[in-house]
Amino acid sequence: MTKRVPLFIDGEFVQSQSEKFLPVTNPATQEVLCEVPFATQSEMEAAYASAKAAFLTWKETPISERARVMMRYQALLKEHHDEIAEILSSETGKTFEDAKGDLWRGIEVVEHAANIPSMMMGETVENVAREIDTYSYTQPLGVCAGITPFNFPAMIPLWMYPMAIAAGNTFILKPSEQDPLTPTRLAELFVEAGAPKGVLQVIHGGKEQVDFLLHHPDIKAISFVGSVPVGQYIYKTGTANMKRVQSFAGAKNHMVVMPDAAKQQVINNIAGASVGAAGQRCMAISVAVLVGEAREWKHEIKEALQKARPGAWNDPGASYGPVISPQAKERICNLIQQGVDEGAEILLDGRDVVVDGYPDGNWVGPTLFAGVTPEMSIYKDEIFGPVLCLVEVDTLDEAIELINNSPYGNGTSMFTASGAAARKFQHNIEVGQVGINIPIPVPLPFFSFTGWKGSFYGDQHAYGKQAVRFYTETKTITARWFNEDTKSGPNFSINLK
């Protein structure tokens, strides 16, 4: 019998009583790894009830103890690093190195969560008026929830529940139904780290389970990462139900290449940033904007992309793995055909790539288009595959205008030797995360992940100081004590005789 992924409710891993299960397959082989349940209404209610009960005691747990749980957790994640990465590779198709990177970026957030005492400090002002003091406390919200995508099954859950729980909340995680084994292992290690019963719940499913979280009247905050249509739905529905929502959606990230840039560095970086992780990341570079004479480099960019090849997770020569599903491959291939039909010049076509020994894998080879214009589907749509579009402009001003006209604002980068050009770019560009001679500018956890425009719906972003603000509320106290209260009362002096 095929293994069934358990739910994690009230501190126990339990088999769902659902009648609906979805097979989870290895994208490189189509082997069925397990079946994931769609949690029942009663199971979801039980998860919420446990989280609510646990919150009453967890919020009173000294903050230093909450920090120690995170310290133990990050140690366990490091100890089991390769084991988790192998699980992750099997269900996502990522290469082993890519899977380890996925987990490591999550571990960095857990390490940041271990610093929660300093991030939860309030503020105090003495004598705001005569004999009146004002001070503020940072307090947790209650039960929070996270809905995570398939492409980073370790990193993105670890963006969410460690910060929320360290801040004193309890948390319900609904991971992607396409790769549930990694989040399950993360939950097992969280228990081993000493997390109390009920602090974390894991339920599985699809839209019905998401809607439970969005509509439940007592779930205080929702964090989401995924596609644009779903991100908009999450934000609109969650806020309509009076919840705090941070919703990270799609992207179309541009790399601007100036003619004075270090040529070989540009070519190396553009290849890795465009096809790495099979292009299945919201910070992938999908458009290279070649400015002026840099347009002459497109054939060398083609040569670099030709050297990248997909392969199995344990192939040390593979640049990336398969895309997540046959449906994802079909969508990518359809968009490639649209690019051809709309008049773009296809310099590399990865639709017919073959990987020896894996005839059933969801393989898409590196694909490169030149002569791309903003009206084309391959420019406008997030392809989420190993496809790079080349756009040519004459000046930096044109490049900035092009990017600012995009509805997305997740990430962008610029390669140049000019400090003046770099400053102009970073100052004028309407994108939340900017790299200068860095292709994928994902910030470390003591900053926040700050997408703009159609890439993010909400106010406070993931991890960093903004995550603490998202998962907490500020209480301000103004206090006055009358002098006569001190004239008679206990004597706290110490007799030293």
TrEMBL record:
Enzyme Commission numbers on file: 1.2.1.27
Keyword terms, alphabetized: NAD, Oxidoreductase
Aldehyde dehydrogenase domain: residues covered: 13-477
Transmembrane segments: none
Gene Ontology molecular-function annotations: methylmalonate-semialdehyde dehydrogenase (acylating, NAD) activity
NAD listed as a keyword: yes
Any one Gene Ontology BP term: thymine catabolic process
Entry similarity comment: Belongs to the aldehyde dehydrogenase family.
The protein, known as: methylmalonate-semialdehyde dehydrogenase (CoA acylating)
